[in-house]
Structure formats: structure tokens, C-alpha cells
Amino acid sequence: MKTFNRKILKEKRKILRNNPTQVEAFLWGYLRNSRCEGRKFRRQSSIKNYIVDFYCPEEKLVIELDGDFHFDAKAMKDDEKELRKLKRKE
Q1: CB-based contacts of 79: which residues, under 8 Å, 6+ apart?
Q2: Domain annotation covers residue 82
């Protein structure tokens, strides 16, 4: 099973990249073109079945910017479950 940027999620990643939140657009201004100490970041990259906001392969660093939809009980539980799965990848 392919771990990164699975084809099945390609269209969803494209939609998310083309419709960033204000905060994502702001942060991308600092991360794009290796502006963060020469580190390359990818935006709306998928790891397994999850799409993360930003990913730095060199550092194995994920940045997730949570919006309002992450703050209800079900979403918080789902986020916790996703985080545990992503940590197992290390």
C-alpha cells in the first residue's frame, strides 16, 4: 500500500489546495519555496488515508491547522484516532 499521496485522494487534495483557509494561505506564504530554514514543505499532502495541511518530509513534521469543524466531540475523537495512526508510521 502506498503511504504518501495516494491517487484515490488526489482530487480531494487538489480541491483543498485550491481553497485554503485564510490561516493556511497565510502560513503557506512563509513555508513555500523552502523559506523556512531551507526546509521543503508540501501542502495538502496525504499520509495513508489522511490529508494533512502541511508536511515536511525531511523532518517528518506534520502541521495541522484546526478549524471550527475540529472542535465538536466526534471530530476531536476522530482527530485523536488519526494522530495515533500517523504516529505509528514513525
Answers
A1: 66, 70
A2: no
